[in-house]
């Protein structure tokens, strides 16, 4: 059996077996679950060969699976996060309800994502895409909170995307006569112009939904926030990247042949930019960590979309690098939220506070990941941002630079809010006996955080697969050597050399720390956060020293005009209107049998009157 | 040849008369014999299907009278495939209700099983017959047994539903008679093959008039848009398995009749457009009406109507791909909707009002039933890798191949509505708290077998559609090849 | 050996920046005092303060982040300093001049605020947190005109490196102040916020917040913060001089140019009351941003 | 004789159409369930009558091959409509019976025979 099949089938079998193993032993189930993820992952990295196609026919449709260098890059992300989050899940789901359900859908989602990456024809692509959708849908509604709202919204938007894609797929079939992706790419330049425009747009709509591009992003905040956090780290970290995966393929292989391609790219890029801005602003306004990170994910995906839509070689590298980084740090951050939720029972900033000394390792993960998120050198996040800005400037998208930079700066606000909200600030009595998260949760978190640091120093680790992947898509190879040195440079010859920067930063940091810390260590003592100077007055016991509510109120007041109404609101109104119309039209079925008979007679008479026109010779 | 198509009609009719007599010997016969008959019909149709693959279509001439005068039964790949599907479903419905009606007295049970058997027989007859008037008779058999079965539960509003059904049915049969009459006066024959052969001679207006009367008449049974007012009521009030049989068997037969008439008998291009437009309207109206339903079975009913609309759209496309898609849709819908009706009935078992809210929290108490319902819901929405996906793909592909881009878009948009109302129910099953006054009822073992076998089909075909695509393709070929149909029947003359 | 050279150059540069920054700070206090009709502290008062803080011993701390806050701040100022050419043509230690560009510098410069904010956060003092939120909000405000000005320069001169921009001025013989005047205006207006002098001093707000983020720090912490602020002021001024005034050939020229630039926020601050945070943010998104847009338009048009 | 037959034919067709229309009117406008069922029956009768009339051949004989009529197939009335009508009448009878039994059930359940008041199932 081919190893690609084997991997997919192992996941499927693993899902079923794991789901039922819970009947006998919880420990066995956990073990099987980890194995069900790691064995295929190991197989993938050791056995799968590039560009080897397996074809077979199903229902009269020729299907092909295989691995390209481009999907290899995404597969790294999926499996990395998949394995990390699986280990984390074992700790996170311990003692929670619906564990079997969770494991089943988790494995199915990972399988579907790998399947998408393996697919070399549109039908397998779509099949895996939809499996991914419904498996993740089942995860979103898993907690049972607001399922009719959040879950349905997720599904409706997924369906909009998937059906747009399906429409494109059947149109493609009408043109080429089969469903193979490569055949379509080859015939695309010779299509009629209308189809040439319509098909990529439909595909892009499909991918934009998963990539949460405005205005199709409204499902994302709720769905990310209400899934189990251990899944959200995959959901936001890897699953959303499937949209990016598709978009890049469309941009590179299709739109480059289209005269209007540039316009479409610009529109998408601007949509991405608006997503980044609006989502960032909403993230700042959130008081719930899950929602904050959810909006933040949408915003970060916005940057990635900008980058891949611009589509210069450097922008592509930037976008894909950021996609990978986002997987790492957002995965870790969602895990942090999960850990806090597990240990305290809530994720509300206004309730939890001062956990830094209770959960130091969790805090460390959060700190590193937040620094990566904010794009501050020397971590990996900066490299992506840097390449993004440089490529935007070089490709004359100046306004986009401003917009992207604005949202990136504004991201500092919520980044700070996240750290401050959970870990800093007053240490309240209520959380005095919170313990550090279990080791199974800490290890994957820290591993991802280390990944962020590692990619800051050695971006070539991941730039190399990206580069290979882009070249295999037929992308021009002007940056072929980029990853060989750790030097980033733009076409104007300006550069950032990472190693000395990192040394300088570390050197100064350690020196200063030594200066303030080591000389004082013996003589200072730790005092609690209650023991603070308040302009000479001693705070009384009942005085509130916790600053939590309306955290960024001044800023939010400044940006109030753009945040008056969420896009959500328009969709809700639209949906409610539609439902009202449907509710009205179904009154055709009045309940009176005689009316029905009358319909029949009238229908007959109308047809008889129309006869010549209706059934023309 | 292992048997004759006549047996499809003869055996059940004979059994129907024998059952009351046998019932006097041992009461259980009333429940068992219909099952045996249906099983026999299934075996027969499967063996005939295998037979015709090597020997070609069977045309059975009854009592030696040749086609123009006598009645004939045609077991072609197309009608054979449908017969197999119907008898299979009939058997499952019987299996499902075998114990389901345990608590029902002898008298009602007798009526129930006899009528069920007759309904299946009538539907099979509609599919097999090659004679227009004979088709009318079978339609009436189906309808009358349908009226009886609908009003089975005395204490509900079932009589109301049955009366509406009857009213529409009576109009339909009148119209059908008029249509048949016009054809007969013009062409002097009632044999469908001969009608098809002589159709070009017919006066254009007469042709259109007759077609309209027949379409409206059969449209009542086939649940096309302005004629389907009875359908939701009947589905709501009939016993669960009967709803399944209605949507899986009766409506399929009616759609078959519709299609046979348009594809084989008439040569009017506009009829395809009629199918397309009416199908589309049916689809849209039904799916949107289903969105806000409060009763589970009524929702399923509208969904069923909508799916039939889809099948009609597919037939209306008129190409071979379209016919293939339509047959696939009919097949998958019959299986999936039966699964939904079967499992849905248990989810709202204890409440006669069958409100959707009664399914709240049932996932915890009836895990397997709830899982099967979910499977059915996912399949009918068209999510891969379940069966519904392949049929929907075939439909969309056929529409796209015929350059009907707008149609593809409309179907997909309305499908989203469909997804919404199904998922709302699924969410209720699993994630809502059980209501205090609902009592979960465990399915009987027979019902479970019936549901599991349907679910197995949904899954297996979903992963391996090749099992049926060959059969469906042959059926589609058969329907498209009008000349061969005429030739095969008339050669028996 | 290169490393040693970097370290040595770094230390010397740091000392220069420290001294200049402190002196400028003292001058500012004096000027403000005189305008307010006071006598004011001597110019070297800052040195005295720094020495006093340096020799004090802290008795308490609030945990790890509390220690790291000042360190982050110092990293931000010193590393930024290392990337800025002090004098043109390598008249001073080159440090890391050729290893970074403007965008890198932008991020390096905000690094400190975030790190400081973390340190302030752990103290648990609500005033610190309030100050931080105001500071971050204000930062989002002024970064917009600032990045616009920089992007305008990049467009106009096709380089993102600071040395590159200096070379451009050297070759053309005109300062960028004249070559792209609107960018200069936008950048200067943004710099008002960067210095956090009045009217943008609500972050520290000495009167009611007890100097905001810094409120829990004393002794060595405060010394570290104070010196890094001074260095940072020097960094910003030198950067402006490099970008817009053609850099400096020797130290005297550098001092004159930076002092003149320094007077702009100082004098603007003296004659203005304090803005509320949202007013400040909106102010930055008003005229400074308009100038920024004009600068970009001008840059696109002129290339 | 010829003229008489013509008039007869017109009368038969006319009465068939009239019956159909009367039946339609009754079934579509009368609110009483019984009247609706009656209307349906009348409509059926009209259709049956029309079918018979269509199969009628002017001056034809009964379609029975008996002594003396062996070669007169051309003169015979078409037998098929008659056969059909027989079947249809039986079916119509059955439907009417079912309908009336349903009416009884409805009356017991709803205490009314007005069709517009029996609307528990709608939308």
List descriptors.
A: 617 residues, mainly alpha, 3 domains, two-stranded antiparallel sheet, globular, B: two-stranded antiparallel sheet
Low-confidence stretches of chain A at least 5 residues in length (pLDDT < 50)?
none
Strand content of chain C: under 5%
The description of the largest β-sheet of chain A is: 2 strands, antiparallel
Terminal residue distance of chain A: 57 Å
Structure description:
The complex is a heterotetramer of chains A (617), B (493), C (303) and D (123). The model of chain A has no long low-confidence stretch (mean pLDDT 84). Chain A is 69% helix and 3% strand. Chain A is globular and about 100 Å long. Chain A starts with a helix and ends with a helix. Chain A contains 22 helices and five strands. In chain A, the strands form two sheets. In chain A, strands 1-2 form a two-stranded antiparallel sheet. Chain A folds into three domains: 1-250, no CATH class; 260-521, no CATH class; 565-614. Chain B is built from 20 helices and two strands. Chain B has helices at residues 6-25, 29-55, 77-100, 106-128, 132-150, 158-187, 192-198, 204-222, 230-237, 240-265, 270-291, 296-317, 320-347, 362-365, 367-381, 387-401, 405-431, 445-463, 466-480, 482-490, and strands at residues 58-61, 72-75. In chain B, helix 5 (132-150) packs antiparallel against helix 10 (240-265), helix 8 (204-222) packs antiparallel against helix 10 and helix 13 crosses helix 19 (466-480). Chain B is globular, with a radius of gyration of 21 Å. The two termini of chain B are 20 Å apart. Chain C is built from 13 helices and one strand; from the N terminus they run H-H-E-H-H-H-H-H-H-H-H-H-H-H. Chain C has helices at 2-35, 45-55, 64-83, 102-123, 126-157, 162-172, 176-179, 181-195, 206-209, 219-244, 251-270, 277-284, 287-302, and one strand at 60-61. In chain C, helix 1 (2-35) packs across helix 11, helix 6 (162-172) packs parallel to helix 10 (219-244) and helix 8 (181-195) packs antiparallel against helix 13 (287-302). Chain D has 123 residues and is mainly α. Chain D has a single domain, classed as Orthogonal Bundle (Helix Hairpins), CATH 1.10.287.3510. Chain D has three helices and no strands. Chain D has helices at residues 2-29, 33-55, 79-110. Chain D is elongated. Chains in contact: A-B, A-C, A-D, B-D. Chains A and C meet through helix 14, helix 15, helix 16, strand 4 and helix 19 of A and helix 1, strand 1, helix 3, helix 4 and helix 5 of C. Strand 5 (525-526) of chain A pairs parallel with strand 1 (60-61) of chain C.
